UniProtKB/TrEMBL annotation:
Stored CDD domains: HTH_ARSR
Pfam families cross-referenced by the UniProt entry: AsnC_trans_reg (PF01037), HTH_24 (PF13412)
Protein name (database record): Transcriptional regulatory protein DoeX
Gene Ontology biological-process annotations: regulation of DNA-templated transcription; response to amino acid
SUPFAM superfamilies in the record: Dimeric alpha+beta barrel, Winged helix' DNA-binding domain
Protein keywords: DNA-binding, Transcription, Transcription regulation
The organism of origin for this protein: Sinorhizobium medicae
Domain called HTH asnC-type: residue spans: 3-64
Keyword Transcription regulation set for record: yes
Top-level taxon of the source organism: Bacteria
GO annotations of cellular component type: cytosol
Length: 164
């Protein structure tokens, strides 16, 4: 789906405020409410807007250990990757997993109650024999920046002038 400048304004507005009213969204997009709402529905149906979420300040609710983990598998057959990825997808404490190129196969972001809970999670992964050859743990000591809003304006090509 090709996006124009209006679509980008809609996406930027709902990223900044997922609870924005129809009227406020239309104003930010430069449309009347009905066409704006129809565009938003089109973006949802196309799978570009995949959901609406609240950001929770977890550390205000409970102590938490944030851990980044690098994992290298011992074998690199597609079946090995598939087995590992299925197992990871089912563990709620693993909040993100990226398959990466370079010296490691995966980078995981893990959130547990404490370091002891993290170690139990790792022990469980190793016991399941998922093909993990090596792993490195990085304890997050301070979050400097963690954005959920994507910089659409700098990532997507700009629509030619006059196509709004």
């Amino acid at each position: 789906m090709k996006l124009d400048a209006i679509d980008l304004r809609i996406l930027e507005a709902i990223q900044a405020d997922g609870r924005i009213t129809k009227l406020a969204l239309a104003e930010k997009a430069g449309l009347s409410p009905t066409p704006c709402w129809m565009r938003l529905r089109k973006l949802e149906k196309a799978g570009i807007v995949t959901g609406y979420h609240a950001r929770v300040a977890l550390r205000r609710v409970a102590p938490v250990a944030s851990v980044m983990m690098e994992i290298t598998l011992g074998n690199h057959r597609q079946a090995d990757f598939d087995r590992f990825e299925r197992a990871i997808a089912a563990i709620p404490e693993i909040v993100a997993c990226w398959s990466v190129g370079g010296g490691v196969d995966y980078i995981l972001k893990i959130m547990t109650a404490d370091i002891d809970a993290y170690q139990r999670l790792v022990d469980g992964l190793l016991e399941r024999e998922l093909g993990i050859d090596r792993y490195f743990t990085y304890i997050v000591t301070k979050t400097v920046k963690e954005e959920t809003v994507l910089p659409l304006g700098s990532l997507l090509p700009q629509a030619p002038a006059g196509q709004d």
